[in-house]
Automatic annotation (TrEMBL):
One of its GO terms (cellular component) is plasma membrane. This is Cell division transporter, ATP-binding protein FtsE. It comes from Rubellimicrobium mesophilum DSM 19309. The lineage of its organism: Bacteria, Pseudomonadati, Pseudomonadota, Alphaproteobacteria, Rhodobacterales. Keywords: ATP-binding, Cell cycle, Cell division, Nucleotide-binding. One of its GO terms (molecular function) is ATP hydrolysis activity. Residues 2-224 form the ABC transporter domain. Signal peptide: none annotated. SUPFAM superfamilies: P-loop containing nucleoside triphosphate hydrolases (SSF52540). One of its GO terms (biological process) is cell division.
Length: 224
């Protein structure tokens, strides 16, 4: 679905990484780890064509990202759910409406109401649906962010440090939700520093671990 072939990227003439190759296939589960500043968020942005690679090739469902126009990018993004590092909500709208927002924007709101109640229960936010985002705890915010990322039934979930500020119990809960999504057939890629989270996931799912370091992407495994 998403493929990188020899991809390089940098900002302002400073090369961040090069020669990156990877493939996100249906049903795969990947962790992306590496030191702060290695380029994990950048790599995720290349996955959803927020950035275009000047070097190598990123293909989204067989299409070269560089050749995609705005409509093609919008179509591809409907198949990708992103949980951002800093989750932004519209603070004046209730949690339920925030979760429905991607469907509202896509003019597909009618599809959402059937799923919403089930989705809220699944992420454990059934009783917070009418609250405003500033009233949520950190863990509740991240679960709302995950619900918003999956409301469109994407095929790929990209999560950037989804457990960043969460305690261990809440991190586990979020991880379990991501593993469940993977069991439903979705490809999942989680960027994280949290090696304990990766170790915990290894008990639940056959995850591949990619490490971005010194401008290269390596497979990591037994040493984690
Ligand atoms: N828009 C930008 N303009 C210039 N430099 C940028 C930009 N975005 C990121 N960078 C730089 O690129 C490097 C990689 O950033 P990125 O956010 O991809 O790393 P990361 O591995 O996700 O880091 P962290 O784990 O701390 O979130 C950093 O040095 C960052 O300062």
């Amino acid at each position: 679905m998403i493929e990188f072939q020899g991809v390089g990227y940098g900002y302002g003439g400073r090369r961040l990484f090069s020669g990156l190759s990877m493939s996100l296939a249906p049903g795969s589960f990947h962790f992306l780890t590496g030191p702060s500043g290695a380029g994990k968020t950048t790599l995720l942005k290349l996955c959803y064509a927020e950035l275009r690679a000047p070097e190598g090739r990123v293909t989204l469902w067989g299409q070269d990202a560089r050749a995609m126009d705005r409509d093609a990018v919008a179509m591809a993004r409907r198949r990708i759910g992103v949980v951002h590092q800093e989750t932004q909500f519209l603070d004046h709208l209730p949690v339920a409406e925030n979760i429905l927002l991607p469907l509202t924007v896509a003019g597909r709101l009618a599809e959402g109401h059937g799923n919403l109640r089930e989705l809220l229960a699944w992420v454990g936010l059934a009783s917070q649906a009418g609250q405003l985002p500033p009233e949520l705890s950190g863990g509740e915010r991240q679960r709302a962010a995950l619900a918003r990322a999956v409301i469109t039934s994407p095929e790929v979930i990209l999560a950037d440090e989804p457990t960043g500020n969460l305690d261990w119990e809440m991190s586990q809960r979020l991880l379990t939700l991501l593993v469940e999504l993977n069991r439903m057939g979705k490809a999942v890629l989680i960027a994280t520093h949290d090696l304990n989270l990766i170790r915990a996931a290894k008990q639940q799912v056959g995850a591949r671990i990619l490490r971005l370091r010194d401008g290269r992407l390596q497979a990591a495994g037994a040493d984690l």
